[in-house]
Amino acid sequence: MRIAVDAMGGDFAPVEIVKGAVEAAEKDGIDIVLVGDRDQIKAELAKHPAAAVEIMHASEIVQMDEHPANAIRRKPDSSIVVAAGMVVSGEADAIVSAGNTGAAMAVATLKLGRIPGIARPAIASFLPTNKGKAVLLDGGANVDCSVDNLLQFAVMGREYAERVLKLNNPRIGLLSIGEEPSKGNELTKAAHAQLAQSDLHFVGNIDGKDVFRGAADVIICDGFAGNLVLKIAEAIAEFLQSNLKEEINKNPVYKLGVLILSPALKRAKNRLDYAEYGGAPLLGVNGVCIISHGRSDARAIRNAIKAAASAVENNVVKFISTTVQQDEFAILNRDPSAK
Amino acid sequence: MRIAVDAMGGDFAPVEIVKGAVEAAEKDGIDIVLVGDRDQIKAELAKHPAAAVEIMHASEIVQMDEHPANAIRRKPDSSIVVAAGMVVSGEADAIVSAGNTGAAMAVATLKLGRIPGIARPAIASFLPTNKGKAVLLDGGANVDCSVDNLLQFAVMGREYAERVLKLNNPRIGLLSIGEEPSKGNELTKAAHAQLAQSDLHFVGNIDGKDVFRGAADVIICDGFAGNLVLKIAEAIAEFLQSNLKEEINKNPVYKLGVLILSPALKRAKNRLDYAEYGGAPLLGVNGVCIISHGRSDARAIRNAIKAAASAVENNVVKFISTTVQQDEFAILNRDPSAK
After folding, report:
1. Top-confidence residue, B95 or A51
2. I need a surface site. Which of A59, A89, B115, B231 has the fewest CB within 10 A?
3. What residues in B contact A263, CB-CB < 8 Å?
4. Beta bridge pairs of residue A60
């Protein structure tokens, strides 16, 4: 097994990407090929002389703010396109990228193709909960979704939770406003009716206030709502932190309190840390692709590489593919070509 | 001016409602009529013998979990219905309720009617920001919205921010995922195009991560997204707090840190406190109706009563009504009867 890591993608590329890849190779024994500008990668690898990491040269870089579709067309030798090509040709088993999210999704969908029966791939993002973590999908790949899209997300999330996270009979919840089936918008009400009839372990609507309480292992929503949840969670944590800093600066005696409490404050905050999870798998494409946060540091990249390896090892693509085509999930698969 | 306060609505009714009303009467000099069970209200008022607060008897109560439309039909003598009736008959100028939100909205819309040109009333909720506060609407009254609904929300939010919050030329933002006009779902992209053409001071999309950064004074979205934002913000703050408590309990020395930091922690947390704002005006109905959080304490109720008085004093209903019918806002008013 070999993981193709986009060395040029992300706010701290290539420094942190190379560092994270080296750590994954050395500490986790994962075979890695760094894809990107050979000279830049070599210069970074020189800091880690003992590292056994391969390089695949790619002369171009898709910038963070480039239009995804245009960038791919214009830059066939960009690191993300070359990395995906390696998975297609069998030279690698998975892609990890902290670069332009839209470009990574577009490349993965275009090059790897979709799993038959899945109309739209979805980003499976992790949320911390009082009981551990939950997988939320879609985290932002599809802003406008149909009921069928949501049902397919549910099946993909279930397979991921069961096969990779090793949860037994994972609980599927539907993000909504209000717990009753009658609460929500037209999309969630229609999806609720279908999910309730399915063979999934559906636990009903998950109200916004319960998202972090661990009432479901897999939380289903359209990409607009999902992305909003992820960003609001990050934004409010930052807001509280900046408020606290401001209050602390008002009185020197607080500095002593911070000194004493600092480890506890740090650990409480770390439970929200995206780097803990490393990246979000793009589920529904015919291959493993892990999309990392643009601000990924070495630890996040190492965790993303481990997540990629685990998805490959546990055959998550094969399980999704088999499940969506099984008779018992016919309800989820009425028209695979439908949007 | 007289404010009709639903004494029976809310988790801590009638105790905290009566207490908050008495405070508003005594400290803010506002004329108040408490609507609800006469005996229960009298018993509470006995704790405040000097208070000059009137009572309007109502024999029924709409429970928090009752179906709004059914409850109103079946309970014509409920406190919320009687309070609304007092505004219709001119015996009161505004309603304040911390009871069943759906019922309060339905009663206000049914009894007071809509402002001509406004298809759907919206809840204007307050969000704290690094620069003060922002008004978000819709906070949950309309889960499925059209572009016209959003444009009308923008006009109502602008009038409220300008007339009541006294902001000069308030900045209107559109909640979306991504800042560029091309980012978002079908609804936000279409609304962006219309808002950009309007005479409003439109500052473009507000990404989830920027909601608390004060980039807009008024944030427009459908009620599903808006309610999600409010609930996720509340949920993540609770989650962080419970994480911190858990960490603190791990080591007795942290207790000392908490003792020192406690005022700063409390003040940082208070910036998120709904009681600070008291309640959310339901804009678009032909009268003033403030909907308070179910968990409102006396302070929240007092602030809600002050908000109601301020909305009446500043003629917000009249200004919304005039503005939506002005020629320059013709774009917002193409078909007032349209959903």
Report:
1. B95
2. A89
3. 247
4. A78
Amino acid at B240: L
In chain A the domains, ranked by start, together with CATH numbers, are 1-118+284-315 (3.40.718.10)
Rounded-to-integer distance, Cα A242 and Cα B268, Å:
9
- The residue of chain B nearest to residue A65, with distances taken between CA atoms, is B180
Kindly report the nearest CA distance between residue A136 and chain B, in angstroms: 14
Is the pLDDT assigned to residue A326 strictly greater than 80? Answer: no
**Given an 8 Å threshold on Cβ–Cβ distance, is A144 in contact with B186?**
yes
Using one digit for the tens of pLDDT, what is the confidence trace for B307-327? 999 999 999 999 999 988 874
A261: nearest CB among B143, B213, B258: B258
Give the C-alpha separation, A314 to B138, whole Å: 44
Query: Model confidence over B241-295: pLDDT tens digits?
Result: 888 888 888 888 888 888 888 888 888 887 777 767 789 999 999 999 999 999 9
DSSP states of A216-275 as a string? -SEEE--HHHHHHHHHHHHHHHHHHHHHHHHHHTT-HHHHHHHHHHHHHHHHHHHTT-GG
Alpha-carbon distances of B114 from A65, B119, B147, B307, rounded to whole Å: 44, 7, 18, 20
B236 φ/ψ angles, rounded to the nearest 5 degrees: -70, -35
Tell me how many degrees the CA angle A267-A268-A269 measures, rounded to the nearest 5.
90
- Pairs of CB atoms within 8 A across A/B: 171
Residues of A in contact with B228 (CB under 8 A): 175, 177, 208, 225, 228-229, 232
Partnered with residue B136 across adjacent β-strands are B125, B219
- pLDDT tens, residue by residue, A191-204: 999 999 988 999 99
User: Residue B329: what pLDDT?
Assistant: 53
Q: What is the distance between the alpha carbons of residues A149 and A191, in angstroms, rounded to a whole number?
A: 9
pTM summary value: 0.91
